[in-house]
Amino acid sequence: MIGPNGPCDPGSSMSSHPLALPDTLFDIESFAAWSRALYRMMPLPGHVRTLFESTIEEPTDQLAAVVRDVFTTPVSDRFESVFGRGNAYVIAALAQRYGVNEDQIVCTTGASTAVGMVLHTLVKPGDHVLVETPRFDVLDSLSRDRGARVDTLTRNGAGMKIDPDHLADKLQPDTRLVLISNLHNPSGYLMREAELAELAAVAERNGTLILVDEVYGDFAGESGETCAARVAPNVITVNSLTKVFGLFALRCGWIVCDPALARRISRDNADREFGVSKLTHAVAAHVLERPEPFDSHWRTILNATRPVLERHFNAMRDDGLIDGILPDYGCICFPEILGVTDTRALARDMWKQQGLVLAPGEFFGQPGHIRLGFGVAPDRLDEGLARLHEALYARRRAVRSA
After folding, report:
1. In this structure, are 262 and 321 located in the same domain?
2. pLDDT per residue over 132-173, tens digit each?
3. Which residue of 18, 26, 153, 338 shows the fewest CB atoms closer than 10 Å?
4. In terms of domains, do 259 and 315 share one?
């Protein structure tokens, strides 16, 4: 048997780091609530390795340099009023980056806020919406908060694809919105433009719009795929600087859609969303106008961590511990853990016994999987994945000998 660090003695014992932490952590129902609870416990003990992160490590040096540039005397002219529509420089930079018109863009305080604004405009309590599964749970929870009747749209197969016929079967006369992600969260798989166009055509015949959460989309910039809102008039994009750039501190998000709908979204949410931050969106304008240091940051990280992930992923798959195919882009993946149906219990055991933090598939609507994030320091990722490999192998050995 080839273990995580080379040939492994099947009789050897795995290293253990027992933690006296609350058993209730993995009883929390949603990923959003779980991650908030976890971050409230930070900093974690030094031996803990976290494998659940869904973003790139924050580029603090690059961000500090931009902040100095913006607020060195004289203060940048990007520091302007955002009341009403948002920072004009952010809008102009986004229009150029994604090849859309400025009147298609609505600035928001992050992607989740953007989703909520779209739901507020398009969905009335009692209306029907479809949310992909497996899914990022915020898409589901925001829809339910709006009072929608939420149904699932299943992604299947090795590439977590959506069958257009399946979409057609799930649509109802009052289906107002379909919510999906691209890159798919939690799997990281890319939906090609042609696939989205097929889905958009099916939805259009029903008078239904599709919202595409593209917070991971820029990871696939070299794929040649376009902003989802350019694919069809009934497709809406939401995005932010959080995942690819790691700039969650700026709370900068946006909506891209048909100009008439953009005006409607702004108008309908005027009494709910009073505007984005003048300060952070001034910084965001500089980031978007000169993105090279931030693009270089995430590429450098993934160029270092991707080989680490591939080595451990392939070794665990060869040992029959996991199954799946790594996505071509992004910083997350969603392998199946073979022989395990309760990945919530598995994650609890790994947390308490191994000092590993894993996001179980139950959080995303698909037990038996875990979501792994690899936008972190390569040495910590290497140690964490080695620990996971050893623990999964020891667990299987214990089950077989029982």
Report:
1. no
2. 999 999 999 999 999 999 999 999 988 999 999 999 999 999
3. 18
4. no
CB contact set of 110 (below 8 Å; sequence gap of 6+):
240, 242, 251, 252, 253
> Do both 285 and 232 map to the same domain?
yes
CATH number where 317 lies: 3.90.1150.10
Question: Do 219 and 105 fall within a single domain?
Answer: yes
pLDDT digits (tens, 9 = 90+) for 44-62: 888 999 999 999 999 999 9
Is 258 a member of any domain?
yes
Name which residue leads in pLDDT, 21 or 120. 120
Q: Report which residue type is found at 194.
A: A
Q: How far apart are CA 329 and CA 389, in angstroms?
A: 23
Ramachandran quadrant class, 9 (left: phi over 0; alpha: psi -120 to 50; beta: rest): beta
**What's the DSSP call for residue 44?**
P
Q: What are phi and psi of 321, to 5 degrees?
A: -95, -30
Q: What does the mean pLDDT of the chain come to?
A: 93
Q: Which residue bears the tokens 């915020």?
A: 138
Choosing from 257, 290, 323, the residue where a domain stops is 290
Q: Determine the structural domain holding residue 125 and report its residue range.
A: 61-290
CB 169 within 8 A of CB 122: no
271 in a structural domain: yes
Q: Establish if 10 belongs to a structural domain.
A: no
Q: Is the pLDDT of residue 9 over 70?
A: no
Flag whether pLDDT at 189 surpasses 80: yes
Looking at residue 272, its pLDDT comes to 83
Question: Residue range 76-93: average pLDDT?
Answer: 92
CATH number at residue 255: 3.40.640.10
Given phi > 0 = left and psi -120 to 50 = alpha, else beta, which region is 207?
Answer: left
- Residue located via tokens 């589901």: 140
CB-CB contact of 123 with 321 (8 Å): no
